[in-house]
Design goal:
InterPro entries: PDDEXK_4
Radius of gyration: 32 Å
CATH architecture of the largest domain: 3-Layer(aba) Sandwich
Shape: elongated
Strand content: 15-25%
Protein name: PD-(D/E)XK nuclease family protein
Distance between the termini: 50 Å
Pfam family, one: PDDEXK_4
Order of helices and strands: HHHHEEEHEEHHHHEEEEHEEEH
CATH class of the largest domain: Alpha Beta
Number of domains: 2
CATH topology of the largest domain: Trna Endonuclease, Chain: A, domain 1
Length: 394
């Protein structure tokens, strides 16, 4: 136990977790796949009618920097007259199969071929076939090409295809951004564009999105066994609360002459844990809840407890309006062992899931665990007598 005490002191000294701001293009869950990201690249290169060609301009300038396109030719380009294609195919005569190049951008002075890689290897890509495709589509225009990927890694690329990294592309995109938007009205594309550039940066630097800083990571490695014991203690604590809550609810119902099984469940509600106690005699979907969460502001009461009730429509013997009115009256007049949980959205009671559940939430007047269990018992008794019996509400 002394080891755990020392461990707690060490945990308290760790830096607070810094939450990363979510990115519009990554929160969908597939932003790191090549095809969705390639689709987005095409949009910001002018792949849809009316969408900006800003990213194509930035990418071509990266190739100017690398000596694959001339500055003079770049200066003469009309950037609003690009044609962008996705998954452009050509038949490979050697294998008699079609090969596809991710992006093909055609301008008045150039044709640009882009093979896009996120985390996959380029070793199997037929770059010689891509060269044939570009030659067939050039019509005398300058051919430029590149592999666009998060890093400058090039060992898996055959032929003379240069690599442009996301970082290089982002630098050029930001360089041109001011002049690109200076003479255009504000539009949604400006906001989407900057968000997409940030998304590309996140793909190139996944280490910046780690959920744990190095100090905390090293701390876990050093104290892994003790932390496991601590987690087991928390699991046992939750099991003990489940046992105490179930015994409390069962005892109340037994005293009222109701013999029933109590089904228990454990859920996570954000930062809180919710322990549900569901008497089968209430229809199998209604319950009372003992919930708790950490309270860093009060050393003497480090855990806050509160209670809730969920009444499934159709299980009650008295209508929701009557139950809500009487339960709210009892709470407001402080006639029982609980008090309002400061839920400003309702008068102590509210409905969820399109009126399928009548809900109630409160803190115990005595905020300790013992006081909360007493309030849970009192709430269970009230519900049994007033919501699940045909006796008159009191």
């Amino acid at each position: 136990m002394q080891n755990l005490i020392e461990l707690i002191k060490g945990v308290q000294g760790l830096p607070a977790t810094v939450m990363q701001e979510p990115n519009f293009f990554s929160i969908g869950g597939t932003g790191y796949f090549e095809n969705p990201t390639s689709d987005l690249l095409a949009i910001f290169m002018g792949g849809q009618g009316g969408t900006p060609t800003w990213l194509a301009k930035a990418l071509v300038y990266c190739l100017v920097d690398q000596g694959h396109f001339s500055q003079d030719a770049f200066d003469l380009c009309e950037w609003n007259e690009l044609f962008v294609e996705r998954e452009v195919s050509i038949n490979d005569e050697l294998t008699d199969t079609y090969k596809r190049l991710d992006l093909l951008v055609t301008g008045a002075a150039f044709v640009l071929g882009i093979e896009h890689k996120v985390y996959a290897s380029a070793a199997a890509n037929p770059f010689d076939v891509y060269d044939q495709l570009l030659q067939s589509r050039s019509e005398g225009k300058t051919i430029i090409k590149c592999v666009l990927r998060p890093s400058k890694y090039a060992a898996d690329i055959r032929g003379d295809w240069p690599v442009v990294s996301y970082d290089e592309l982002i630098v050029k995109a930001k360089l041109f951004y001011g002049s690109d938007i200076a003479f255009t009205p504000i539009s949604k594309w400006q906001f989407f564009y900057t968000e997409f550039l940030q998304h590309l940066y996140g793909l190139a630097h996944p280490e910046n999105e780690n959920p744990m800083d190095k100090q905390s990571f090293d701390f876990v490695i050093q104290h892994f066994i003790t932390l496991r014991k601590g987690r087991n203690l928390l699991d046992d604590f939750e099991k003990q609360l489940l046992h105490q809550g179930s015994a409390t609810v069962s005892k109340v119902l037994q005293e009222l002459g109701v013999e029933t099984n109590i089904v228990t469940r454990s859920h996570t509600w954000g930062e809180a844990k919710a322990l549900r106690f569901r008497p089968e005699c209430w229809g199998g979907e209604s319950d009372v809840v003992l919930a708790f969460y950490g309270n860093e502001d009060d050393a003497e009461q480090p855990i806050n407890f509160y209670i809730r009730a969920y009444i499934k429509k159709g299980s009650e013997k008295v209508d929701f309006d009557t139950i809500s009115k009487e339960l709210s009256h009892r709470t407001a007049k402080k006639l029982d062992l609980w008090e309002d949980d400061k839920n400003v959205e309702s008068n102590h009671c509210w409905q969820e899931r399109d009126g399928k559940y009548l809900c109630f939430g409160a803190y115990a007047k005595d905020r300790t665990l013992e006081g909360t269990l007493q309030a849970l018992a009192s709430l269970t008794k009230w519900l049994q007598l007033n919501a699940y019996s045909t006796v008159e509400l009191a």
